[in-house]
Each structure stands twice: as structure tokens, then as C-alpha cells.
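User: I'm putting together notes for a lab meeting next week and I want to include a structural view of one of the chains we've been expressing. I don't have a solved structure, so I'd like a prediction I can at least talk through. The sequence is below, exactly as it appears in our construct file.
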Amino acid sequence: MITLHHLEYSQSFRILWLLEELGTEYELKLYNRNADNNLAPDAYKALSPLGTAPVITDENGLVLAESNAVIDYILDQHPDSPLRPAGGSPERADYLFWFHASIGSMMPMQFMDGIFTVLQKRSPFFLRPVISAVLGQAQKLLVQPRMTTILDRLEHDLARHKWLAGDQLTAADITMSYCMASAKQRGFVNDSRPGCMRWLEQMEATPSYQSAMAKDGRETMVFSFD
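Assistant: Thanks for the context. Below is the predicted structure for the 226-residue chain, given as C-alpha cells.
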């Protein structure tokens, strides 16, 4: 049986949602962040050399990190699941794009934006105007154009079908959940992005998402940089 080692306010929520959607048996172990620095506790870091969430263990001795690797490993055990469209299907290309864009494009941009924000807020008071001006310009040049491009693509695809890879929920939607919730939290997604807002609403209304949130025990899955 798979054990999900779930760190609060982390990307491991996606694995929790995946397991709930599959309806498979699993064990859940919850970990809180250290109160002094918001980092994972030592017990969590000891699970994997990366010390990052998510991490799963399996009764065969496997220890596996990295979100998409974990998702693929779990779906390999459920080959008939519609959560991963088959090769050659009309949904496959969109599925692959969004499955990997979540980690390859969207999260790095938001992480960079979060770091810029933290540096502005925590810079010395007498230097803050200069530092804020420089970092604010960097956000405009490095983050906003790329986020605009990917959100435009999201709006385009969500105008064509209900979910990211067609009219049925897939693992691409699950892996994008943290990115999209974070994008809304950071102000990238708002009422000017009706397709994205609709997607977030239907995500939150999905029974498996709701049961995952209940087991998570928190009002949001997203860690705030602010």
C-alpha cells in the first residue's frame, strides 16, 4: 500500500487529491511545517534526499519524490484510469502539455514572483524604495509577460472544453491545481480570466477534491510567500 507523506500547505496536496479521485486504498501521514521558518520538519526531510513535498513510500521499499513522477507511478498501478488519456487519443497532446507546464512553466514563475515579493518586504527600510523599484521592474520584465502568455493559453483551452485536456477531469488538472490556486492567491487569476475562474470553481466542487481538503484539514492548499 502507498503511504502519502503530506506536508501542510504544499504541492503534495495534488497527490492527496489524486488518491481520493482514484478511490484507492492508501495511508496518509500528516506533517506540519516548523513554526520558526515554515520549512519541512526533520522527520519529513529524512524521507528523501530532496527534503521536498510530495513524497510517497510503498510497501515494496520505494521512496519517491517529485510531483509528476509520483503521479505517473500511481497511475501506472491504475492503467485503466481515465485520468491519463491514452497515447493517440485526441486529448493526449493537451494532457501532456498541461501536465508538464504546471511544473516546467507556471510554478517557477510564481516562485520567482514570490521571492521578489519577500525581498521587497524584508529589505532594510532605508533601502526599500530603491530595492522595491528594481525588483518591481524585474517582476514586470521576467514574470508578468510569461504568466500572461500561459494564462492566455489557459483561457483559450478552457473556452474549448470543460477541463484542461477535454471534457473529463485528468491528472493534468490535478497537477495544475496548486499552480492555479497559487495564481489566484497572487492576483494573476481574477475575474478578468473567466475561464480560469470557472475551472477553479468546478475544481473546488469536485467530490474528490472536497474529500481531499477535508483530510488535509485546512482552508487552503497553498503556502503563502507573503
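A couple of points you could mention at the meeting. The first strand starts at residue 3 and ends at 7. The domain at 3-81 is CATH 3.40.30.10 (Glutaredoxin).

User: Perfect, that's what I needed.
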